[in-house]
Amino acid sequence: MDTNSNSIAIIGVSGRFPGAKNVDAFWKNLTAGVESISFFGDEELAASGVDVAELKKAPGYRAARGMIE
After folding, report:
1. For the chain, how many helices (H) and strands (E)?
2. Higher pLDDT residue, 54 or 32?
3. CA end-to-end distance (rounded Å), the chain
4. What stretch of H or E contains 66?
5. In degrees, to the nearest 5, what angle opens at C-alpha 27 toward C-alphas 24 and 31?
């Protein structure tokens, strides 16, 4: 490796995350223990057209997801 080179590294990060509009906000949420996953009750699921009775039969189903603004 040439230690006398004039190499330049340009590094950038971008992203969209539940509960955070950018990487800085995401990192703050992580370090503060902010829960960014939305959880839904039976009424909310039914209102969006989900058959709640069918979902109750699925043992691993969780009425939750990350919502991106």
Report:
1. 3, 2
2. 32
3. 45
4. strand 64-66
5. 140
43 assigned to some structural domain: yes
Q: Is 5 inside any structural domain?
A: no
On the question of pLDDT at 29 being above 90, the answer is: yes
Q: What is the mean pLDDT of the chain?
A: 89
- The torsion angle over the Cα atoms of residues 30, 32, 33 and 37, rounded to 10 degrees, is -60
Which residue shows structure tokens 């009750």? Answer: 41
The domain in which residue 56 lies consists of 38-69
Each residue's pLDDT tens digit, 2-12: 566 788 888 88
For the chain, the domain total comes to 1
Full-prediction pTM beyond 0.85?
A: no
